[in-house]
Amino acid sequence: MRRALVALALVLSACGQVRPETAASAAPTPPKARSAKPPADPYPSSYKPYPGPLTAIRHATIYDGEGGRIENGTIILDQGKITALGGPDLAIPTDARLIDGQGKWVTPGVIDVHSHLGDYPSPSVAAHQDGNEITGPVRSEVWAEHSVWPQDPGFSRALTNGGVTTIQILPGSANLFGGRSVTVKNVYARTVQGMKFPDAPYGLKMACGENPKRVYGNRNVMPGSRMGNMAVNRQTWINAAEYKRKLDKGENVTRNLQLETLAEVLSGRVLVHHHCYRADEMAQVIDMAREFGYKVSTFHHAVEAYKIADLLAKEEICGALWADWWGFKMESYDGIKENIALLHRAGGCAIVHSDDANGIQRLNQEAAKALAAGRRMGMTISDQEAWRWLAINPAKAIGVSDRTGSLKPGKMADVVLWNGNPLSVYTRPDKVWIDGALLYDAADPQRRPVSDFELGQPGEGDVK
Amino acid sequence: MNRLPLLHRAGRAAYLRRGTLAALLAFGLITPADADTLAITNGRLVIGDGSAPIDHGTVVLRDGRILTAGAQVTIPADARRIDAGGKWVTPGLVAGFSRLGLVEIDAVDPANDTAANGSPYGASQSIAPAINPKAEAIAVSRAAGVTRAIVAPEAGKGLFAGQGAIIDLGEDMDAVTQADAFQFAEYGEMGADKAGGSRGAAWLDLRYALEAAQAVGRGRAPLNGDGRDTLVLRRDAEALAPVVRGEQPLLIHAERASDLRQLLALKRQFPSLRLVLVGASEAWLVADRIAAAGVPVIASALNDLPDQFERLAATQSNIGRMQRAGVEASIGMIDDSDTRQAQQSAQYAGNLVALTRVPGATGLDWAQAFRAISAGPAEAIGMGGEFGSLRSGRRADVVIWDGDPLELSSAPVNLWIDGVEQSLVSRQTRLRDRYATPGETGLPKAYQR
Fold first, then answer.
1. Range A37-454: architecture per CATH
2. Which of A106, A448, B4, B315 could bond to A62 as cystine, CB 3.0-4.6 Å?
3. pTM for the complete prediction?
4. Residues of B numbered 415-444 whose beta carbons fall under 8 angstroms of chain A's beta carbons: which are they?
């Protein structure tokens, strides 16, 4: 768990200016009254899909990402969208580019809801540590997109080895309120705006447990305990509710970025992604969300989700989980390999996530390990059903399931053609389309992205 | 080297059988008819030395060692027999570079013995006394088929981390196969940092320490007889004496091609040195030189990110390209969850097989990939005669799997270490069983076990 430890060390070593601030001081102090209405979309997406010809993949095994499976299937991509899906008899337009999927598999592009590509990019030098605004436990005013470096070489590995087409990039977990996430298409661009998934809702990163209380407790700044975590959280929500009340009543208040994001959560427009390992803490957060009238979209890491799988299912909160990470810190000690499958079996929304620039390259393998563990304890889960963990479930968690996350006509043509069974260790992506554009082709070195950073370096353009 | 004599180890295996017999009987793992000789027949047999799997193969275990294994095997009359029913039968996996047994929880300092940043000693530290056979990571790794591990300390104040150990992952309290089996040191970015800030200083430190070891080896003070024992402590110099004599391998971690090349030059000044390179993400760029030097490499299999400037050319094809160039390259997991995730060894090896189907990539065929997590690392540290394969005379570390051992869906169903069948239960499986049904019934979960 060196990576986790490195992140931990960075958290510990980030001894920037400590602001003697608690959430209470974050309350707005309006010097003069004026409109606080935030602009609708101040950093809008400029992403434009790349062109792709009308394409038909035939004779493949297809997992649709919602639990469906088609043998000897056909899928048609046109104008950036999936236009048709069916068996061998599906009519194919005569001018379609034909791709033989014999012996291969087609799935929706993999979605990772927990990545730090761009805000903790490679190379992971001190100058690149942009994922934690570690100057105060409440930093809901920061936006991950303002840290993301679009030249992170990690994006290319996630594409070519992992078949990842959509990524939610989150702030880190040093703070109780870490800031806004950004969801991107895994398509290199000169700017972050050029990668942003059009009209994807924002997320708010929050964190339970060890990290915030350690980071701030070590500085004699609240929180220094789990109860301190909750107290700062609750006081902050009280402030946010008050801010929202004034906004809703049309009162004039000065814009406050920190509370603006929280008010958006209370309005249901920003989705909460809460880093939380322990079952008991997740239950506390569920009650807190009820206290303040918001909903948690997803618990991230949640190594103890299996202990409260019934509760998570009832509350319709997703769990974004690892297959087999455990023990790298006290709150991860009870991690078990059956976590994902147990949440799934309880009827919950299980997601395989990475939180890691290496793991994001093998999310399909992580799903396979989790599936195997579930089957070994006697569960009956089909391969295509398990693929939900990489497709429709993560799409729901980040609020884009109406546009991607499954192979349904009308949805974005985010598609992976795998060179075999994608739950096998011996399988890799053969081709990846994003919005219908072929952006990776194993057989074509020209369809292998090379970030600016790697240009002119040893290994430029190599298979990775 | 102070390798334990064969008989001693066999004796230990017999002792273990006595010591744990009651427990094994209680768990139903063995029958009272258990004999000293066990024949596992009708397996898809993997020897672990790079040879192709053998269908309907047999392996015979006697007194904690492999008696014989192959297609045509004479089974001793007194042997107890297990029909593997066509399942895969392999040597136990070897964690090629690990920190297993040193840590319960990484971020809990008192439960983490990987490094001693506050100690003045480096090379003379020995990791063997720190090994905890009851560390949960050992049980978890064992359940994933890992039976032996190369365990290295982390560097503290200086480049030299100390003497690593070879351990088995058995349930018993006697984990150390061989203490002080090798010396481990850092070079490259971390070595430079330890040496004060540059590779130039690190290079000086390396040679200085080895020169001091030569001096004490000749009965002189660590510093060439000038009477002043300055930067290298006598204890450390003494610990390095078997390294310069070539009696103890020196594992050095470096990543950048130029660093690896530089390290090969150590052999010019210290010709007896038994160098093993660790990590080595850019080794493919200098594979010919490494091959010519006859230096084995225990490499990180899946590093493919330029996450440090010393790894700009990292690619998963590294091991494949090295092997193609003639390097004895195997898989280790330095700084990659190396305290607890040896359970991913088989997955890593499987990924190298996947590369054989990616245009432009260089992978390993199945048998070579398996060897990279069995005989490969054992050979790299000069202990291929002891473990890592099912060749005659090796320790009887044997696994029966429910499928292709490199495949993600597979797991061990039976596992022996030194000929003793082992439990595959871990704290994780206990938690799984407790929460197999959600919600409390009758009594709290705390009463359910």
1. Alpha-Beta Barrel (3.20)
2. A106
3. 0.92
4. 428-429, 431-432, 435-436, 438-439
